[in-house]
């Protein structure tokens, strides 16, 4: 039975997931594959490379670096998160991503992006470390309006959460029968229409299918939550989520706030580590 880890996004809320993942890595929990969306991809890649603590470390280190994430970066480059600095210079020079370990680990790693021309999700299996994989992760995390469309391998891409926020069904379809899903919203959360839709409409005016996906995103997300509950009841899906709304926004420049959310994830991981281990044991 193939075992998967499914990671939704949520920008800085993803540090909750990073905390849970670090506990699982420390305790030797392994999976056959991981699929991540947006921050789930950006932080989840460290599971395959085995780099415990890397996600919280570099986010705290660069919290005040305007080249990493800032209004100045957006006004200067068109990307809130600096495309070159955050996704290439940092992992290649300042907090190095272990490409060799990533490639050596047989665990499969997938990222979810949105094809803005079709308004459909794209699922990319990344097997090699380095520049190409960094760009796929960047595309997965490129939020509309505050990011350039990423042109990659013939696609024009943005945030995977626009079209498949919780890609459990896709992972099941490709053969992962037992899955741990880490969410970044508490039980009872339901997505509502985005109040920034007027800005999004302008930002996506050349991509009507992507715009339609954004309009339909609340319905898509809430439908996925219902599916998740259904699959959890069957016994082949285990959901990890925060107990209450996380004390952080999409963007944060506060290292203490980041650490607080990460520690909430670690605490949840510690609480449920035995349950996770038992769940992953083949029946």
Describe this structure in words.
The structure is a single chain. With 283 residues, the chain is an alpha/beta fold. The protein is built from eleven helices and eight strands. Strands 1, 2, 3, 4, 5, 6, 7 and 8 form an eight-stranded mixed β-sheet that branches. A hairpin with a 2-residue loop joins β5 (150-152) and β6 (155-159). The protein is globular. The N and C termini lie close together (9 Å).
Distance between the first and last residues' Cα: 9 Å
- Low-pLDDT stretches are none
Mean pLDDT: 96
> How would the global form be characterised?
globular
Structural class: alpha/beta
Q: Quickly count the helices.
A: 11
Give the tally of β-strands.
8
Helix content: 40-55%
Biggest sheet overview: 8 strands, mixed
Order of helices and strands: EHEHHHHHEEHEEHEHHEH
Portion of residues in beta strands equals: 15-25%
Taking all Cα atoms into account, the compactness measure Rg is 17 Å
Give a brief rundown of this model.
With 283 residues, this protein is α/β, with parallel strands linked by helices. The chain is built from eleven helices and eight strands.
Key descriptive features of the protein:
single chain; globular; alpha/beta; eight-stranded mixed β-sheet; 283 residues
Give a topology summary:
Elements: E1 2-7, H1 14-26, E2 33-37, H2 39-49, H3 54-61, H4 71-77, H5 83-94, H6 99-104, E3 108-115, E4 120-125, H7 131-140, E5 150-152, E6 155-159, H8 168-173, E7 176-182, H9 197-203, H10 208-234, E8 237-240, H11 255-280
Parallel strand pairs: 1-2, 1-7, 2-3, 7-8
Antiparallel strand pairs: 3-4, 3-6, 5-6
